[in-house]
């Protein structure tokens, strides 16, 4: 009975986990679709071009607030599942919408990788600087950003934090265009953590089901082997019973039978 309860609990857990994963995917897809719409609008406005170069400067210590009227979103155009292969480049499109009254001068884009839940820094990704990129008032623009995590990074789930730094009226500001999780896999690896979890859970359920069937078969075999014992032969009377019955009508009747 206990094995059956464990099997039933794990079956419910498998169903619930599959349902939650499906809901998370739907929510992620809906958010990606909304961001993609905004980025598509910025593409229609045209990409803002300028002198672009890689900058080795560490932007991790920068802590500016976002400017009023400036909104940013991002999408992974070729990777909606946000599955990043270690050592390979991943492209991100950043959409900036300037609803302010002054022009926005874009300075740089940078990102970093952190451990989930602890926010411990794992890697500072490459920074991209702009020498002459601006977004006028009431204009939308798109900025491409390409990053690559270290090829030695262990596969797993990490937090990606991406920021775009800009100036408005010569005052620095920054927006976080992405602050969420990504799935890092090794080069050539096709199995994700989600797939491994489902495979392991399915294997555990299969083993428990086999143990439950085996227990049921053993109980059934024990029941079939139980045969009622039948005594064949003369009836024996315990001597202690004879002593206890001395002087009673039972002993007297036995004596009369023996005389005959």
Automatic annotation (TrEMBL):
Entry GO CC: endoplasmic reticulum; endoplasmic reticulum membrane
Protein family membership: Belongs to the TRAP-alpha family.
Quaternary organization: Heterotetramer of TRAP-alpha, TRAP-beta, TRAP-delta and TRAP-gamma.
InterPro entries associated with the record: TRAP_alpha (IPR005595)
Its membrane topology: Single-pass type I membrane protein
Free-text note regarding domains: Shows a remarkable charge distribution with the N-terminus being highly negatively charged, and the cytoplasmic C-terminus positively charged.
Protein name per UniProt: Translocon-associated protein subunit alpha
Keywords, comma-separated and alphabetical: Calcium, Endoplasmic reticulum, Membrane, Signal, Transmembrane, Transmembrane helix
Organism: Lactuca sativa
Localization per Swiss-Prot or TrEMBL: Endoplasmic reticulum membrane
Function comment: TRAP proteins are part of a complex whose function is to bind calcium to the ER membrane and thereby regulate the retention of ER resident proteins. May be involved in the recycling of the translocation apparatus after completion of the translocation process or may function as a membrane-bound chaperone facilitating folding of translocated proteins.
């Amino acid at each position: 009975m206990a094995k059956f309860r464990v099997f039933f609990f794990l079956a419910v857990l498998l169903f619930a986990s599959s349902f939650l994963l499906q809901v998370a995917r739907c929510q992620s897809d809906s958010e990606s679709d909304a961001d993609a719409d905004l980025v598509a609008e910025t593409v229609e406005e045209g990409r803002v071009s300028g002198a672009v170069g890689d900058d080795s400067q560490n932007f991790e210590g920068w802590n500016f607030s976002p400017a009023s009227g400036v909104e940013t979103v991002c999408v992974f155009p070729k990777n909606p599942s946000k599955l990043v292969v270690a050592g390979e480049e991943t492209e991100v499109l950043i959409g900036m919408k300037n609803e302010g009254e002054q022009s926005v001068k874009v300075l740089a884009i940078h990102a970093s990788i952190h451990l989930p839940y602890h926010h411990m820094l794992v890697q500072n990704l490459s920074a991209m600087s702009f020498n002459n990129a601006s977004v006028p008032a009431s204009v939308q623009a798109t900025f491409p950003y390409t990053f690559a995590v270290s090829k030695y990074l262990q596969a797993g789930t990490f937090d990606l934090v991406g920021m775009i730094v800009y100036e408005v009226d010569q005052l620095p500001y920054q927006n976080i265009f992405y602050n969420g999780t990504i799935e890092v896999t090794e080069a050539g690896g096709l199995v994700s953590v989600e797939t491994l979890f489902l495979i392991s859970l399915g294997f555990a359920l299969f083993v428990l089901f086999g143990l439950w069937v085996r227990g049921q078969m053993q109980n059934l075999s024990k029941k079939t082997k139980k045969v009622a014992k039948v005594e064949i032969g003369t009836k024996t009377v315990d001597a202690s019973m004879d002593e206890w019955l001395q002087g009673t009508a039972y002993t007297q009747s036995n004596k009369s039978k023996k005389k005959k």
